[in-house]
Amino acid sequence: MRRSVLGLMGLAVILAIAMPAAVRSSERAERSPQELFAARCAYCHEAGGWGTRVLARRMPEGEAQLRQRTSLPPALTTLVVRRGIGAMPPFTPTELSDEELQALAQWLAEEARPRR
């Protein structure tokens, strides 16, 4: 009897820990690339942001803001986001899932197509 009570208590603890993570995961999956950019990137990579100011020293005029770039391959975005670069910290899969990162990288690549 004591073992079964302890087993049920252990199961309850495991479920209590797993449930919020599952809810967070399902909430994250519903966010659009635009929402992800606003939540995770825009602070540094929109006009006036630290990342934009740093990139302005290295990029051609008008391409410091990520959404204004004329070329931004998804593989580059993925690499920089996962590894970090300079003052930019890496983002782990728990902060930005692989699926979210792929969607964000693809969206930025489409946003960054040459303007005509």
What structural keywords apply?
2 domains, single chain, Cytochrome Bc1 Complex, Chain D, domain 2, 116 residues, 0% strand, mainly alpha
Structure description:
This protein is an all-alpha fold and 116 residues long. It has 2 domains: 1-30; 31-111, Cytochrome c-like domain (Cytochrome Bc1 Complex, Chain D, domain 2), CATH 1.10.760.10. It has helices spanning 2-29, 33-40, 42-45, 50-56, 74-83, 98-111. The longest helix has 28 residues, at 2-29.
Task: Summarize it.
This protein has 116 residues and is mainly alpha-helical. It contains six helices and no strands.
Count the beta strands.
0
Rg over CA atoms: 20 Å
* Number of helical regions: 6
From the spread of the alpha carbons, the general shape counts as elongated
Overall CATH class of the largest domain: Mainly Alpha
Calculate the terminal CA-CA distance, rounded to whole Å. 74 Å
* Architecture per CATH nomenclature, i.e. the level-2 architecture of the largest domain: Orthogonal Bundle
Domain module tally? 2
Mean pLDDT: 82
Helix content: 55-70%
Topology:
Elements: H1 2-29, H2 33-40, H3 42-45, H4 50-56, H5 74-83, H6 98-111
Helix pairs in contact: 2-6, 5-6
